[in-house]
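User: Here's a protein and a ligand (5'-O-[(L-methionyl)-sulphamoyl]adenosine). What would the complex look like?
Assistant: Let me lay out the input and then the predicted complex.
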Amino acid sequence: MGRYYVTTPIYYVNDAPHIGHAYTTVVADGLARWHRLLGEDVFFLTGTDEHGLKVARAAEEHGLSPQEQADVTSARYREAWALLNISNDDFIRTTEARHHTAVRELLTAAKDNGHIYKDTYEGLYCVACEAYYTEDDLVDGNCPIHHRPVEHLSEENWFFALSAFEQPLLDWYEAHPGFVGPEGKRNEALGLIRQGLRDISISRSSIQWGVEVPWDPEHVFYVWYDALINYATAVGYGSDPERFADWWPEAHHVIGKDILRFHCVYWPALLLAAGLTPPKRISVHGFLLVGGEKMSKTSLNQIAPADLVADFGVDGYRYHFLGAPPFGPDGDFSYEGMVERYNSDLANNLGNLQARVATVVGKKCDGVGPAPHPDSPLAAVATESYADTAAAWERVQPSLALEATWRLIRETNAHLETNEPWKAEPGPEVDAVLGDALEALRIVTILASPAVPGTCAEIWRRLGLEGRPEDQRLPAAAAWGGYPGGVPVEKGDPLFPRLTA
Ligand code: MSP
């Protein structure tokens, strides 16, 4: 059985979760759920990034210790992910002992291999990014990402000899064309490497809130060098070598474009330095913008997932963010756009299909679902819809996967409108049309379950089917003819009541 290890970035605990963080998490959840349908052994990791200056300062502002700040905010992330029905198998916190052990072991291995040395560092530091910049990186003298002033810092640091990994990284990218996607983001990463890599400081003596450098306890590791290692910790690095050997390097990291440099340049170089293999794949998405701008605490345009769940429901939320911005480019969030997609795709298409099929089965077949026709015109549509859905998930394009699945919903609605079973007398012809619609709906609930799991489980039950859609296995479960017929069909309440903007 294939293994699939998917990760989200670990979220800083200085601030509460907003829809930008949730975007990465929902996409990773969709991928985890899709790969479970394929029968793969899936491990889905998320968690919180709890060290560093940014967190220490937020704690100070709130009158808390860094650990208290981390405890409170980490719990808020857990709650947000539970609310969004995120199916993670583990939730890692970088303050956990297992992680400290892994960080020490991995960086010691890199040092033993001759890639870590001590030197004095002077530079311009952005606390929000937890990263150093050069004069050239700045935009109008400010951090290029946060547009805030940077600070001049000078410290004696431990350095990672990143410059030595320029060629090994280029070789790795060439040998592994699918390493970073989509294509534009791969080119961006290659551009960064080709520009030339400088050695980078990986420790701080100015702060205590971090993982202690084992060979120099006056220092803690720079938060990014501790954070990246979480992906190895969670599958047993430093604690369970056998488990680690089973899962590494299967990792598929889903990240936002602001952390591309850390994941696509620093992380594979560090792994190579420690004698380990880079992850299998890194998928990089753009930003969700609100009113054309990046969400930030200062501009007060942050939206919490719970606010939208209150209006659209959990699946309405998940459907929107998996489908609305294509994975890769930036996308602007608008409430009106979300209402529009909810009404057209969920209320009018999926919800309406379920309701109308159940109503007609109630009227024309005494509420007992007929079996599908083996040579239904919808069979070919279902086959194509499955193939396109699968290909899109494989390419990490959830919006295209949903489009392909929804094609089957639309075609099924069209099939009903053409045949108008509600106008015909009960009999074999009506049974055939309805059986085909029920079968298409059965396939839809499997294909759409990574996006809208709660709704699909409910439709499955209303169709009179046993078990849950997420327990089905592809491709077999998507083959035409699986609906048994002769089972009770229930209409139930509307799945997606229409909304007004
Ligand atoms: N702690 C680091 C990641 C360490 S991973 C080893 C971090 N944390 S973060 O909380 O600031 O951001 C985490 C993720 O949320 C990133 O992938 C980032 O791109 C994503 N998003 C934060 N705001 C976003 C949007 N407005 N839109 C889309 N995603 C964005 O970086």
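Summary: Residues 9-12, 20-21, 23-24, 49, 227-228, 230, 255-256, 258-259, 287-288, 294-295 surround 5'-O-[(L-methionyl)-sulphamoyl]adenosine (CB under 6 Å).
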